[in-house]
Write a structure and sequence with these properties.
There is one protein chain. By secondary structure, this protein is an alpha+beta fold. The protein has two domains: about 220 residues, 3-Layer(bba) Sandwich (FAD/NAD(P)-binding domain); about 110 residues, D-Amino Acid Oxidase, subunit A, domain 2 (D-Amino Acid Oxidase, Chain A, domain 2, 2-Layer Sandwich). It contains nine helices and 20 strands. Strands 1, 2, 7, 8, 9, 10, 18 and 19 form an eight-stranded mixed sheet that branches. A seven-stranded mixed sheet has the order 5-4-13-14-15-12-16, with helices on one face. A three-stranded antiparallel sheet has the order 11-17-20, with no helix packed on it. The protein is globular and about 65 Å long.
Length: about 350
């Protein structure tokens, strides 16, 4: 079995894992990312990245690239509502104002509406360009914290050829999602309310609705049709959409439901996936176990509204990354890493 060395191993090459890699490289750390999937997310997932997330991307030199990748949804900030999409109207746009009434500029970096499956390739390319080793199709199968040497020894599996190797690192960052195998192997439990609200289904589909929404471009449209109630999210402003509706099964005649909600024939409609889900509220009982640290959904799951989990995960990565660098470069005592749990878990 071959053996390699890095300073930080990040398990999970999604939105938060790639952001963590970028933060680590920004601070000069050697970092390796492993992701068992062969590609970035095929699902739109999170779409709204708030001011703080964009400020972090700005610090990393990526804000402009993110805005450019999001150009299809530029100006799609409004909410809409109606019996069907064809009948929907835009809702009034609220903006914060100062004491005298004029609009207040909250930050030099505006929020951004961009689908996660569009954003992740931008982050992956940037991480590689920044010098991170990014290995998709590679799975963490085991790891061991070695107290005597102050390192974590991980066993990796290349899922393309079956080759195994050992990787030694100073710290392991778990960005491997809500079902984190790293969290479970570390014996870290979770607390919280658990499932909240009613079961839902997200239907990801393709249909050219550019003419239908022209002049009424929106981020989210509430559909009130009695036979197809739900919410329609714009993924690219024209051809890609997600319809969210109640229900605990994906086994329905989705083309019929979608055409009812749209209020137009949509002859080119193509259902790409139908995923049942239910919102949960759970937080890991601790975010750090010696040299293993949890970020993103591995640390917390929450209702997906306004991309809360994604934005919180980006902030996790930013908070942890500079602290790892300060400790590994001898600028701070290891006790600094205790503040990661103290600061991020209450958030």
């Amino acid at each position: 079995m071959t053996e390699a060395v890095t300073e930080v191993l990040i398990v999970g090459g999604g939105l938060v894992g790639l952001t963590a890699a970028l933060v680590c490289r920004h601070h000069g750390l050697e970092v390796t990312v492993v992701e068992k999937r062969t590609t970035t997310s095929p699902q739109p997932k999170a779409r709204r990245f708030h001011v703080r997330s964009m400020e972090i991307f700005r610090e990393l030199g990526l804000a402009q690239a993110v805005h450019e990748a999001a150009r299809d949804l530029a100006g799609h900030d409004r909410m809409a509502a109606g019996r069907t999409l064809a009948e929907a109207g835009l809702l009034p746009l609220w903006r914060p104002s100062g004491p005298g009434g004029p609009e207040v500029e909250l930050s030099p970096e505006p929020p951004c509406l961009i689908a996660q499956d569009t954003l992740e390739p931008v982050l992956r390319e940037a991480a590689v360009a920044a010098g991170a080793t990014v290995r998709f199709g590679t799975e963490l199968t085991a790891f061991e914290q070695r107290w005597e040497t102050g390192e974590v020894v991980a066993t990796l599996l290349d899922r393309t050829d079956g080759r195994r190797e050992r990787l030694r690192c100073r710290h392991l960052v778990a960005a491997d999602g809500a079902r984190s195998t790293v969290r479970e192997a570390s014996g870290i439990g979770r607390s919280g309310r658990g499932p909240v609200g009613e079961p839902s289904v997200s239907v990801y589909f393709r249909a050219d609705l550019g003419d239908v929404v022209r002049g009424r471009e929106f981020n989210l449209c509430q559909i009130d049709h009695p036979d197809a109630p739900g919410a329609l999210a714009s993924v690219d402003g024209r051809r890609r959409w997600v319809f969210m509706t109640g229900g605990d099964t994906a086994d329905r005649d989705w083309p019929r439901v979608l055409r009812t909600a749209l209020g137009v024939p949509a002859p080119d409609l193509e259902v790409l996936s139908a995923l049942p889900w239910r919102a949960e509220m759970l937080v890991a009982d601790r975010y750090t176990h010696h040299r293993v640290h949890l970020v993103g959904d591995a640390a917390h799951v929450m209702p997906p509204f306004a991309a809360s989990g994604a934005n919180t995960g980006i902030a996790d990565a930013h908070n942890l990354g500079w602290k790892l660098a300060a400790v590994l470069r001898g600028r701070a005592a290891p006790a600094l890493l205790d503040s990661y749990d103290a600061e991020r878990r209450p958030a």
